[in-house]
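Incident log entry.

Two folding requests arrived from the same account within the same minute. Monitoring flagged them as a possible duplicate submission, but the sequences differ. Recording both here for audit purposes.

Request one:
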Amino acid sequence: MKIVRIVSELDFGGVEQVLANSIPQLADQVGAEVSVIVLGKGGRVSQKLISRGVSVHILNQNPRIPNFVLLHKLYKLIKNLNPDVIHCQGSEANFHGILAASWVNVPNIIGEEIGIPNHHSYWKLIFKLVYTKATTIIAISEAVKANIVAIGEVEERKVEVLYNPVGLNVTPSNHQEESDNENDQSKPFIFITTCRLVPIKNLDKLLIAFSELLEKSTQQKIELWIVGDGPLKEELQALAKELKIVENVNWLGFQEEVQPFLNQAEVFILPSLREGSSVSLAEAMTCGLPSIVTQVGGAGEILGNSNSGILIDPLDTHSIKSAMLQLLNLPKSERQTMGKRAMKEAKRFSVDNYIKSLLKIYEIKV
C-alpha cells in the first residue's frame, strides 16, 4: 500500500508530533510505503523523518487558501506518486490535498480536522463541497466530530473519531515515587504547561491566576514552568514582570523532548480557549501527572473516566486559580493516585492502538 500524508508545515506542533510518533512505526509494522508532502516549510520533524528513511517532499508554497499554483504542483506530484491513500491534516492541507487527490482519482481520500473549526458561512460552504470528494473525515475527538457535523460541513456517516497518539517511553519520575514526607517544603511545587505561545492557549489568564495563587499561598515555593515558544513570548514575559511573578515563572522555550520536564512537575495545566483534543495532555497523563484541563472542546475526553483531572472555565481566572489551589493543597499520596489513574487511561493513546485504527480507515473503500 502506498500512503501519502499531506500537512501544511513540518517543524513543531501537535500535527507534526503525531506524524513523528506514527509514520516510522507505520512503515515498519505493515511494510507500507509512506511519504509526506509539506505544503509550506519543513523543519525539525521533517528532518527527523528524513533521517528515518521517510520520503518528504517540501513544496515551500504559501498554504493559504486558495493557492492555485500549489494545487497544480500537488496535482502533478500526487499523480507521479500514484498513492492508494491520501491523508490530509488541517484546513489548508484538507482543502488543497483533497481537491488535488480527487483530480488524480486516488482511491481513498482522507481529510482530518485537527481542531474545532471557526469558519465563516462562506468557508463552511466551501469545505462542505470539498469534503464531498473525501472518502472519510477523521475527527480527533467526539467534540470535533459533533462540531463539524452540526455546522453542516460533513455528513455524520463519513466521520471517524481517532485520538492522536503519544510516543513517550515512560520512566519513573519524582512524582510517581512514594514518599514518607507528605509535605516536603524543601522542593518547589511545579505546575507545568507545554504549548505554543499563541492567543488560543490562554496563557495570559493562566499567569494572572498564578499570581493570585501566589498571594494565597506562602508556605511553599511554587513555580510555573512554560515549555514552548511562539509569537506571544515577549508579551507574556512582560505580563509576568507586571504581575511581579518573574522569579516564579520558568520560560523553558521549545524542547524536543518534553518528558524530562514533565517528570519534574506535580500538575499539568491546559487552559486553552478552544481545544479539539490535546497531545500535550495525553503526554502529561502518560507521565503520571494529574491535570487541570479546559472544559471547552474535546480535551476533557482525553481524561475519560479516569478522575485524574479538574475541568476549568478558561475564561474565569478564579476557576483556574481554585483548581490550582485544590491540587496544591491535596496530599501528595492523593495526587500520586490521580497520576496512576492518568497513566492507566493514557494507554488508550498508544501508537500501536492509533495505527490499528488508522489502518482500518486506510482500507480501500469502493
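Request two (distinct sequence, not a duplicate):
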Amino acid sequence: MEDVKLRIPSPEAELGGGIRAATGVRVLLKRDDLIHPELPGNKWRKLKYNLEAARAGGFGTLLTFGGAYSNHIRATAAAGYYGGFRTIGVIRGEAHDPLNPSLAYAVSRGMELTYLDRATYREKATDEVVDALRREFGEFYLLPEGGSNAEAVRGCAELPAEIGDGFDVIMCAVGTGGTLAGIASGLGEGQRAIGVPVLKGAQFLEGEVAELQRQAFGAATSNWTMDYEHHFGGYAKRTAELDEFVVDFEERHGLRLDWMYVAKMMMALFDAVERGEFARGSTVVAVISGSDEVPVVG
C-alpha cells in the first residue's frame, strides 16, 4: 500500500451554523471520509492491521462477507487492488445481472464474487461454511463481515490521538461495533465515546464491543455508551425526517451525509445538544466515517 496516498491524520473542522453560539457546545467534524476516495474512514482503519497480518502470514488472498451494497466489500476490493491481494467477496443472497454499482465497482477492482443463500449466509462463521469456501478458493485470510476484529479495533484506536484540539465526547455510528470499540480504547482520561447503532434492537452490541476490546487490548473499558433511539427503523431503513435532515445539513454546511450511518449519528448528536446533554463549553467530535457514494474508477 506504499503507493497509495492516504490523508492521515484526517482533517478536522469546526461545525459552523451558530451551534456554538446558541448552545455553548463546540462540534468538531473528524473528516475520516477524506482519508482516501476508495478507502474512506473506518474502512481503512479497520483494514490497516489486517493487511499487515495477512502479509505477515503469507496470505495472498483476502476473503470477506457482505450484502450487495456493502461498503466493506468495496473497501476490501480496493485494498486488494492497491495492496496486491486477490480478493473474494461472499455476497448474501442471489446473484443479479447486471450488477448494482457497488458490486460492479468491486469487480472493477478485481474482486471475485460468490453468493450464499440467506440460510447458509447466517452460518457463515461456522467451520463447515468456511471449510467449503477454502475447498473452492484455496487458502485465504478471513475478514469478518463489516471488518470488525481485534486488528480492526487496534486501527480505530489510533483515531483519538489524531485530534489536535482537546475534546470531551466523541460520537460515531455503530454497525458491527469495531469502530466504537477502538475509539473508546484510544481515549484519554475524562473523555468518553457515544456510539449510535444503525440497527434496531442493537443492545446485544454492548457485549460485542466489550469482547472486541478484550480481544484487542486484554480488557474492556467503561468510557462508552450507546444511543439506541436513532436507528430510524433499522439497518438500511430511513424516514422522511432523516431525509429532510440530510438535505438541510447539506444546505447549511455543504456536506452530504451518508444516510445509512453518518446521518443517524449526526442527528443523535443534534438531538443531544438540543436536550442539553452536553455541558456548555464542551467539545464534541463527530466522526464522519465514510460516504455512501460508489467511487468512480478512472
